[in-house]
Design goal:
alpha/beta; five-stranded mixed beta sheet; 7 helices
Length: 265
């Protein structure tokens, strides 16, 4: 089985693949203070519950693929693969790793590895041109050309960041539950804030995607818009621009990159 690990700023998502099928997944908080040994114990606790894996750490794992937006966590995971999975092929996505996606940026090294991995999966699943909207700590919009190139993107504050900012900066406001209100016109402060977040972000998605499509393709209708990320379900029913929802897009991209690189190791 292949273990895929996507380390984001807020959460880390792990997926277990049996061939092309994801058979198990976990979501944990990202903590830059965790050491390699702590991460190994955490992995053992999670995977020890799966019936297809053995009791010992590493039993049943035939490969590992990792991408991280947090350098300190990537460093510790590198140590995990060395100390606890020494005999298992591991691909850590960083400069020099073959992705198959050309990066058309002024400085390709500035692009988060998760965004490149999303582009890899988008091209494989849907082809280009495409736009990936990832609802994470930040809401990112990534453009993939018709030739499968990473053409650039947009970065906006994420949903949870916006909720926290309202609670911190608004003297009479507080942090609220992220839930869909009864109506767009809120009948109390909580519902008014929920409406602003849900429908405000839906409008942002529709507006940004519409402008990106015009620059990305001669015919905007040719562009496939894919939503991913843990907070995507909050907006899916309200943003008309989204065509597809693939919650495991990054994990699928990691599987593809692993397959393209493991033969070279």
């Amino acid at each position: 089985m292949l273990l895929t690990i996507d380390v984001g700023n807020t959460h880390t998502v792990l997926g277990l693949f049996d061939g092309e099928e994801i058979v198990e997944h976990w979501r944990i908080s990202t903590d830059a203070r965790r050491t390699a040994d702590e991460l190994a114990v955490l992995l053992q606790g999670l995977m020890g519950m799966h019936p297809l894996l053995g009791d010992e750490l590493g039993d049943g794992i035939e490969g590992i693929a990792i991408c991280s937006t947090v350098p300190s966590v990537l460093h510790e995971l590198r140590e995990v693969t060395r100390r606890y999975y020494g005999d298992v092929p591991a691909v850590l996505v960083e400069p020099g790793i073959k992705t198959g996606v050309p990066i058309l940026m002024d400085n390709p090294k500035e692009v988060g590895t998760d965004r490149i991995i999303n582009a890899v999966a988008a091209v494989d699943l849907y082809g280009g041109p495409a736009i990936v909207v990832d609802f994470g700590t930040a809401t990112t919009f990534d453009a993939v050309s018709a030739r499968g190139e990473y053409a650039g993107g947009v970065i906006a504050p994420g949903i949870e960041i916006s909720v926290e900012a309202l609670g911190v900066k608004g003297a009479q406001l507080r942090k609220i539950e992220l839930a869909r209100p009864r109506s767009v016109i809120g009948k109390n402060t909580v519902e008014a804030m929920q409406s602003g977040i849900i429908y405000g972000f839906a409008g942002q998605v529709d507006g940004v995607v519409r402008r990106m499509k015009v620059e990305l393709a001669d015919d905007p209708d040719d562009v496939t818009v894919i939503a991913t990320g843990g907070l995507a379900p909050m907006v899916l029913g309200e943003a008309s621009a989204i065509d597809e929802h693939e919650p495991w897009l990054t994990l699928i991209g990691l599987r593809l990159v692993y397959e393209r690189n493991v033969s070279r190791m």
